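From: lab user (bench 3)
To: helpdesk
Subject: output format question, protein + NAP

Hello, I'm new to running complex predictions and I'm not sure whether the block I got back is the full result or only part of it. Here's what I submitted:
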Amino acid sequence: MENIYDVLIIGGGPGGMTAGIYAKRAGLNVAIIEKGMPGGAIVNTPEVSNYTGFTKIDGFNLATKMFEHVNSLDIPVIFEEVKTLKLSKDIKEVICYENTYETRSVILAFGASVRKLNVEGEQKLLGKGVSYCATCDGALYKGENVALVGGGNTALEDALYLSNLAKKVYLIHRRDEFRGEEYLSKQVRDKENIELVLNSVVSRVSGENKIESIEVTNKETKETQTLIVDGLFVCIGRGPDTDMIEDDIKKDASGYIVTDEYMRTNIEGVFAIGDIRNTPLRQIVTACSDGAIAATKAFEYVLRARKK
Ligand code: NAP
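Helpdesk reply: Thanks, we reran it on our side. This is the complete output you should expect:
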């Protein structure tokens, strides 16, 4: 028999896994497609302390618990990478590099990818001192001097994480106020081996086979200083990566997918949840909430679609 899914969830982060749980419990023929490790961005988060019910848990453990929940309900997880999404017709096509899947509805839950500085030397020295993941690569810089760019929760948490490994951490932020939470900001300011370099941007990354220094420009005074560092961590957030969607899906000025309060996009039967959509808050708890709403609305949509 031809297998047409009721709902395919693209992305196995907290939002996608929650959507899977709700869809399965509603009796839908559902699967989650995930190209890497279930958990999404939280897998690399050293400490989560704002997800209700867990005073403090590391992201990997939380992701593992969520994945155990998914497995306990026998929700299929297809480990493939999506190449193209064709979403406009009643039966939608999810084209992966290995197989193509058909489905009545789709929940887009593949988050966002890392933002780059786009300065000279960044690409050339990627993996040779330049990194986008402090928890993945931080251990390589024990006792060394590193710089970290960003002012959000990720940057603050990662600066604290690195300060326990490296000799010194320069935290470079383009404003003089942090976007991240006050309690993290206070810990960063109190840490002796973190030096704040505020109102400043990295203007160049230098080195031949490995990073040797970075050039930092103060936005107000326009003065430039050279910092000798062994590593540069770029933690300036993530942006949506929606190129794989072939159809005309509505996005906001920053490229995030526009949804209504039911997570519906402008394409019938297509929902978007979590970091990929134009939400006022990108947190684990809000991604999970989005997932529950989307799966509930997908259930109603599928009941109507099956009758067509
Ligand atoms: P974010 O909140 O979007 O912060 C990005 C930071 O990078 C901002 O400070 C921004 O500066 C700066 N930035 C952006 N583009 C830049 C550029 N081209 N050059 C220099 N600086 C640039 O990203 P995030 O910190 O990765 O966090 C993403 C979401 O996950 C947030 O909602 C965050 O609260 C959440 N999160 C939560 C936790 C937690 O609660 N434990 C941990 C990690 C992340 P401006 O401030 O000037 O815009």
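A quick orientation on your result: The first strand starts at residue 4 and ends at 10. Let us know if anything else is unclear.
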